[in-house]
Request: fold
Amino acid sequence: MSNMDEGLKHLITKGVVYDLGQPLYPGIPHHPLHPPFGYVMARQHGDVIFKEGASSANDLFTLGGHTGTHLDAVGHISQDGKLFGGVDAKSVQDWRYGLGQCGINETAPIVARAVLFDVPGWKRVDVLDKGQAISGEDLEKTLGWEGQEIKQGDVALIRTGWGKYWDDPESFNSHEGTPGINLDAAQFLVEKGVRFVAADTTACEVVPSQTMEVHSFLLAQNGVQIMEMLNLEVLAKEKAYASFFVAIPLPISGASGSPIRPIAIV
Reply:
């Protein structure tokens, strides 16, 4: 059990809840290194009929810890064989039981202040270009345009506009690259003391990336967790730049990530 910061309550003035999770269905975009979402209705109505006519349906769905809207565990990334805190990755990982340290089961439900960085809004475009990098200066200027500030412990929501392509996997995972933050932006956010960095793209960082330097810097070097593939369009439309944010990962022992359904309340 953990206590909520009482200072968060002032963020809720209208009582409006925004769903920031993308829908799950066969064919959704997914990173090529992670499994796709799969679904079958394993038991259909009429397969078994009980006395008095009752019947039921149930499902089988498959997905990875990084499929759809999800949260990376601290142990998702290692650098030179080490997880955050100098933990030797090979010594704590197991094919069947996952990560003995830094797994997603160590992440408590997230209740925090979130700030939307509407970078396309500041740039007066609908969506950023393929492979366009977002710098620390871009984030700082976006905050100024919004009239917001980032505080210690916040969740940074990075909007690129890429959510518009969710129903078009080929565009969402464009071979020409996707927009995202660069190392300079990641350093800016860590210096501000954010707890989590979230984005509306597959990788959060700018793609192509040969080194995964943003993931390494945030996760392996600083223990700042990453959320990916959020739907941030409605927050931008409503100009809801600061919100009461909630996201709960599944307590999957040893997992390197988990699906989430984040919400923002204003």
In short: The helical segments are 89-92, 119-123, 136-146, 169-172, 183-192, 213-221, 233-238.
